[in-house]
Amino acid sequence: MQGDVLGLLRKQAGSYMSGEEMARKLGISRIAIWKQIQSLKKHGYDISALKKNGYILRSSPDLMLPAEIKTGLKAKMFCTKIYYFTSVDSTNNYAKKLAQAGAPEGTLVLAETQTKGKGRLGRSWFSPAGCSIYFSLILRPEVLPAYAQRFTLLAGLATAAAIKKTCGLSVRLKWPNDLVVPGKGSYLKVGGILTEMAAESDRVNYLVTGIGINVNIDKKAFPLELRSRGTSLKAQDPRNIPIVRVRLLQQILTEMEHYYKQFLKGEWENIISEYREFDILTGQTVKIKQGDEVISGKVVEIDSEGRLVLRSKNQVLKIIAGEVTLNKL
Ligand code: BTN
Asked: Rg for the chain (alpha carbons), in Å?
């Protein structure tokens, strides 16, 4: 609802709108409007009020508040309910608890910072406050557990497509879950996906797909050990212009919903063929670490089931999981 008040103030751009008119347009009382204005102000919105003219929005904080996300959001299935945190341990952990308690598909958990952000394979995810995107979506597709990996690929595709549309930047995908850009001699990571699930042997109970994107982090703000491997979207822009995080998140949700609907309609082939347009591994010589074992070979393709097909010593292997290291660019 706050999103609607904010939407009206934004539409009015630079001029006043009376509480009465807002109330009429939204079909709620003037007191309800006043309450919402107070709540927006508490979150840092600069809203002036004049008795005879009404309200005017002077400036907005750089926060990813639910009201901001809902204003102008095209996605319908996703974001039915938003849990927003200034700080949380991990949006994936919180979303898993919600899903366990029965939260519906499309529930979104997002945070300005994470104190225990999780990466794949037990790693941590660098999550500084107020300058990046960290969120998790609860999904409940009726599929076999073996299909879970497909949602990591789907989320990667949706995110890369959204970054292209919002920032004009060509982010590529490194199977299975890395969003990367070419750097000097190697690819640099700008984001990653972590899908977790609860399942029975023949049915997924729920999936939590977590997405982390380094958006406006200054290169120098990365810890030393990450500086040579990671970057942010802003740092890739020659003009170093900050990205409006809410717009990017809205576009990701819209793209996610688009591809998720395709998945539900049985159009996986289309998703994987679009994924391949962003893939950097096909044709490359790589090493794949699976537990203690390391396999070397040349990537033939990402196949129609989303597996990495590797030619290794005259054998063709179909890999479903693993950590891929690429030879230098
Ligand atoms: C990876 O590349 O290793 C996966 C990174 C996933 C990070 C995101 S940030 C939002 C969500 N919550 C987490 O704790 N992790 C994922």
From this structure: 22
